[in-house]
Amino acid sequence: MSKELLGALSALEEEKGIKKEVVIEAMQAALVSAYKRNYGQAQNVEVSFDGTKGEMHVYSVKTVVETVTDDQMQVSLDDALQINKGYEIGDDIKFEVTPKNFGRIAAQTAKQVIMQRVREAERENIFDEYSKYEDDLVTGTVERQDTRFVYINLDKVEAVMGPRDQMPNEVYRPQERIKVYVKRVENATKGPQVFVSRTDPGMLKRLFEQEVPEIYDGTVEIVSIAREAGDRAKVAVRSNNSDIDPVGTAVGPKGQRVQTIVNELHGENMDIVEWDEDDARYIANALNPAEVIDVIFEDDNDRACTVIVPDYQLSLAIGKRGQNARLAAKLTGFKIDIKSETEAKEFLAERKQKAQQAENEDEGTTEESETAEPDQETSGEAVDTDSQEVQTESDEDVEADAQDDQSDNVEKPSDHIDDADSSDHTEDTSSDENPSSNQD
Predict the structure, then answer these.
(1) Please, what is the end-to-end C-alpha distance for the chain in angstroms?
(2) Is 183 within 8 Å of 217 (Cβ atoms)?
């Protein structure tokens, strides 16, 4: 090793951004690995680097013991005392074992390990650098394109742009400089992988921040973005200063600010709408340029509504292939159903009828519950009724007994009559007997 190595390390640090300490540490590890592999020694080995001369020395570390069992890892106390009388059992002693020539295999092994460490350090450096640009705009040069990706050179790394991130109205030519939005940065096994996009809504937000100072400093805020890349986009803005018009600020004088963004996106139309705390007004603004008569929210779903527009503006509110309504729904987060005035009359009548039916069902349920409650309250009266029934049965028994008594009274006269008959019969007999006696 010589001073040329120090010069090479300095140049590597300037070109690749890799610190000398990282490379030196990699070289030390490489020399240790090469020494163990090529010289077949498994003892503890250390490598020290002389930063002044650019030289490296290999040392074998041995432990002082009373009785040596492994001469590659241990040294006797007597031998240690010959070197220095201050050594004691358990101390570590370094013996220089630097070979005069590592040989071709040792040099090749060291080179491979060093290059691997250098690549790893370079990858980490690139990953750390481009991680800072995540969710931001960068400018790159188109290199090539295949069936999978468009490859864009970002100076130190090659970014990829997938089919979904490519604008349908753009053709990417080699050596063309374009602005891209960094979606994410991954530290893959083959090195840092940067994924960029030109269709992400975040790109539109960054473009507005570049062109509109009020958006960049936070005076005007972008609340939501709904975008169909290459065709049309809606941007909802609000102002944190009551004296500043958010829509006019974003559009710019004579539309210059928004026109610059449209040109960057190759003709993608922009609708700038004002955000409002009132959901009905916000939805009406989102359906711009259509005029909105009323916004009716559904009772069973607080994120769904029906928008009523004039008959002649129904197609304008829906948009080509439903685009205007679709973007308004994405922008506001509401499920929007658009109806004309004529359709709205039938819709409102039907809704009123359903509400009336529901109200009637509720009233019926209330009446049933009210009817059920008195039954529960009169449960005690039911017991009283039973007692009255019991009492009635007892009264009936009394009446039955009275009738029995009356029947007995009736039978008694009959008995009396029988007695009378019997007496009459006796009298008749006596009268019959008397004549007989007289005859006698």
Answers:
(1) 192
(2) no
Q: Specify the residue for token string 């540490």.
A: 25
- CA-closest candidate to residue 231, choices 290, 169, 180: 169
What whole-number distance in Å separates Cα of residue 160 and Cα of residue 142? 10
Q: Give mean pLDDT, residues 293-322.
A: 91
Structure tokens that stand for 134 in this block: 């995540």
Bridge partners of residue 150, in order along the sequence: 145, 161
For residue 223 the two structure tokens come to 């609340």
Can you tell me the distance from the alpha carbon of 263 to that of 259, in angstroms, rounded to the nearest whole number?
Answer: 6
pLDDT tens for residues 321-343? 999 999 999 999 999 999 998 88
Q: How many CB atoms lie within 10 A of CB 353?
A: 10
Tokens for 351?
């809704």
Q: Which residues contact 189 (CB under 8 A, 6 or more apart)?
A: none
Helix (H) or strand (E) holding 300: none
Sign for the CA dihedral angle at 307, 250, 200, 216 comes to negative
Which helix (H) or strand (E) segment holds residue 414: the answer is: helix 379-439
Which strand ranges, in their side-by-side order, compose the sheet holding 294-297?
294-297, 304-309, 335-340
Q: Strand, coil or helix: what is 402? A: helix
pLDDT for residue 394: 40
Single pTM value for the model = 0.63
Cα 182 to Cα 108, 154, 194, 422, distances in angstroms = 39, 11, 7, 138
